[in-house]
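Re: beginner question about structure tokens

> Can someone show what the tokenized structure looks like for a real chain? I only ever see the sequence side.

Sure, here's an example I had lying around. Input first:
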Amino acid sequence: MSFGPPPPGYGPPIPPAWTAPTAVEHALYEAKLRGDWLAYYDTLARTRLYFEVHRNLTDAKPDGVHPRFYGNSFTNTSWWELFTDGMLPSPEPEPVYSRGTLDWIARSWKPTDPPSIVINPGSPCEAVLPFGPPNSTEWSRVAAGVGTIPISMQLRGLRVGGPLHGPVAHGLACGALLCVSNGSLWNAMAWHGSGYPEERGRLREWWGITTREKWQSALRPLLACESHSSVWDFVLGLRRTIARDFGGHVDIGYWRQSAANVLRARADGSTVLTPDGVTRTDPRPEPETEAQIDGVQRLIGRIGRYEARMRADGVLGEGRYVRSVDAWDLGRASKMARWGLGARFGTLKEAESTVVQAGRNATLSYRSWQEFSAGYILGRCLHFDEEEFGDWYEDMVSAHRILTSDAGSPWLNIPFQ
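And the corresponding structure tokens:
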């Protein structure tokens, strides 16, 4: 337990025009002004709450929960501080935070815990609540009634404390599909995400990242658009060349045959320029070449079917096709910068620089948010979906529709170029 100043009361005098960071804090503020505590508890129960954890204990035992409580030795009082995501401070090496639902907090009570919890201490939407056994308080009964909270598939952003325009906002918007899908704040540059232990777990499980150096090594190929299959680039680049040379639509049969012709020509051996001078490559065995052609032609068929589905779902316009899948890397670079910050593998300055670079690189590959979105979705599906048109596809289409229709969407308010 840490000892410091006495626990807050119900916050400082409410300023006449306080702008809440997000809709959550605004709803808490309005409910508190009305004295509608059931509405206050209901709002809390439908969001994620963050709390400080001991970093050294969390690093040593990442599967455990190690909350830090506060107390005042002079008044012999103690309390547990909980924050909504709009009220979190900018990430520093310490403190670090984990998160849970209000119902989880109620059910986690132990007799040794503090007798009170403080919501968003020091803010106009602050409240001090009694903490006791599950279902012993009004707020815990409300939380139990709410149960599971589906906060995914919604556009959420900071009204204050996060960029809404400019290069940083543009780079952040490159990761907006995943932010909408996860219900996270699209313009939170000061990223806490799912909480420190959860962000570290995400990077360890999905990327094998456990150190700062590994995080940096993952960022470089993402920014260079080299973290996806070069075969995808080959077939999409070939189609761009055909479309440019012949004026538009590319028949899929002609595309397949052209790919086969190129691969067979390469298999015959060619002259290439290397650092050592002009070098002649050796011919490839015919069975190897034919297997490669078969794989490439199957890939072309997959791309064609995904694009047909995306046209039917409004992701691609009629007659349009995906120019490249660079967006798959750049969208992940925008998020990787923030994931690394949340995991404390990098600094806010480093993350911001990466986000800006991701946005700049996106403008070199695409002409609009619509094109960027189609490239990201195709790359994600080629990587994960196996042509099942399941959640890997459907979730992104739903997020795309929100980002191209919601009046508050960054894609409608930030010029792509």
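Each token stands for a local structural state, so reading them left to right follows the chain. The CA atoms of residues 10 and 127 lie 5 Å apart.
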